[in-house]
Amino acid sequence: MVDDSDSEQVQKELDLVGSYFLELWRLKSKRASASSAKDVEMVNLGYEDEELGGEEEEEEEEESVPTELDTLNSSGGFSIVLPDKLSVQYPTVNLHGHDVGVVQANRPAPVKRLVYYFEIYVKNAGAKGYISIGFTTEGFNMRRQPGWEANSYGYHGDDGLLYRGQGKGEAFGPTYSTGDTVGGGINYGSQEFFFTNHSQHFKGVCNVLDARKNGQVVGKVEKDVKGRLYPTIAVHSQNEEVSVNFGKDPFLFDIKAYEAAQRAKQQTYIERISIPQTASYGIVRSYLQHYGYEDTLHVFDEASQSSVPPITGIHDNGFNEHGVYALKHRKILRKLIKDGQIDDAFGKLREWYPQIVQDDTSAICLMLYCQKFIELVRVGHLEEAVDYGRTHFEKFYSLKEYEDLVKDCAALLAYEEPKKSSVGYLLEESQLENVADAVNAIILWTNPEVKDHKSCLHSYLEKLLRQLTACFLEKRLLNGNQGEAFRLRRVLLAKNS
To answer: What is any Pfam family matched here (predicted)?
Structure first.
């Protein structure tokens, strides 16, 4: 006879596993709702549909970026921002060294990325060409050139010097004048500032070095400021006029190629790290085991026999054979769910693992009932879906933790084209995958050798990727929360391009 306390503990553990996958579903629902709201906003602004995409694995809100020059934080009449808010003039004769016309961008440079970059075009170098481009902090003295004050950096056009926090410059790059374009950027990966020059003179000098037609990085310097930085330009002699490009128009400098080169450097460093062939083999094999891909596992083993040395101590490599538990059952159930045959999946669970579905209001039962409802909507059997929903959803309406998800399912009936609605994500293959993964994890949990329900949620490969993500975030935190997070999709796209 099973003790009631043991039965309650079993159900508690089952619910913990099921709740994890419910939260994944809930997160998807929130993203879909936010995406739908963004679509409406973008359509109202006149953007095309192809601009509405986004990475599914993105967990951070999009950062605001500089779009124009700040017209409120003035330098006291020594600069005039023109009506386009992208051009600035020096209207008078400078009488003193502090009569500088400094203008910052309306927002600080975004930080949660690999690179930020902007450019300026010198329309008129004026009387002396005292123009500069750089980065300054909030509260910067707007009567001083960038680089002349602490926590600021500036590349100056009249002498080509770089100034960083003091009045004395250092040799850096060529001068620039009327008709030239220069750029300033932040490389958050290497924690450096870099500047580019596209002057005709500089191109002529660099022809012997096979300079790119889109200009050159003239130099870089260590970035030792952790706070927010504003793209900044300054003018300092009569009739100087400069326009700025924050990315609305194409840059002269090939910033995408620069980013690709930086990523290639990172990849080269990673590829120098030696990983035993048996370890990588074990990671892939454990993934196939974990998700019940039995046929692929057999093919993988056969293909590896001649190329991978035998693994004599699989436990020594951090892997175990728990993944082979109920492999055939998990394979069959995954296929049934992926094919939309939910009733058959229910039947197999009742036959093989009755403890999983004995509580009709459990998280896993909710997912299966909802998926059956979704499949009826998918094939257009709406009346049957209504009847099914009335029969099986009623018991969940009183459970607050499930209310939002049941409402999402029911909302499918409200749209003529549910795929295009805010709940259209329910009809995507990824929803079926989530249900199949939930069933798979709960079956793994029934293995008597499993000590912790968390070990059933992810394969070793996924745990490795999660650790990698955590390491990237920790590195970013050490750099003042600046830099990009790890994105598996981006890595895969880069590999395939």
So the answer is: CTLH
Q: Are 251 and 117 in contact (CB under 8 A)?
A: yes
Task: From 244, 240, 243, select the one nearest 129 (Cα to Cα).
Answer: 240
Please give the Cα distance from 141 to 149 (Å, whole number): 8
| Two structure tokens written together for 345 | 């999946």
At 318, is the pLDDT very low, low, confident or very high (cuts 50, 70, 90)? very low
Nearest to 402 by CA among 437, 440, 369, 444: 369
Nearest of 173, 64, 161 to residue 111 by alpha carbon:
64
Question: Which secondary-structure segment (H or E) carries 229?
Answer: strand 229-235
Q: Mean of the per-residue pLDDT values for the chain?
A: 84
Helices (H), 381-428: 382-397, 400-411
- Mean predicted confidence (pLDDT) in 108-132: 95
| Rounded average pLDDT over 220-226 | 90
Q: What is the chain's Cα-based Rg?
A: 30
Three-state SS string over 97-153 comes to CCCCEEEEECCCCCCCCCEEEEEEEEEECCCCCCCEEEEEECCCCCCCCCCCCCCEE
Provide the β-strand partners of residue 35.
none
By three-state DSSP, how is residue 60 classified? coil
pLDDT at 140: 92
The pLDDT of residue 305: 78
Residues 34, 32: Cα–Cα separation, whole Å: 5
- 73 in Cβ contact with 141 (< 8 Å): no
- Token pair listed for 291: 């998700």
Task: Centre a 10 Å sphere on the Cβ of residue 442 and count the other Cβ atoms it contains.
Answer: 25
- Residue 436, C-beta contacts closer than 8 angstroms, at least 6 positions apart: 333, 334, 337, 338
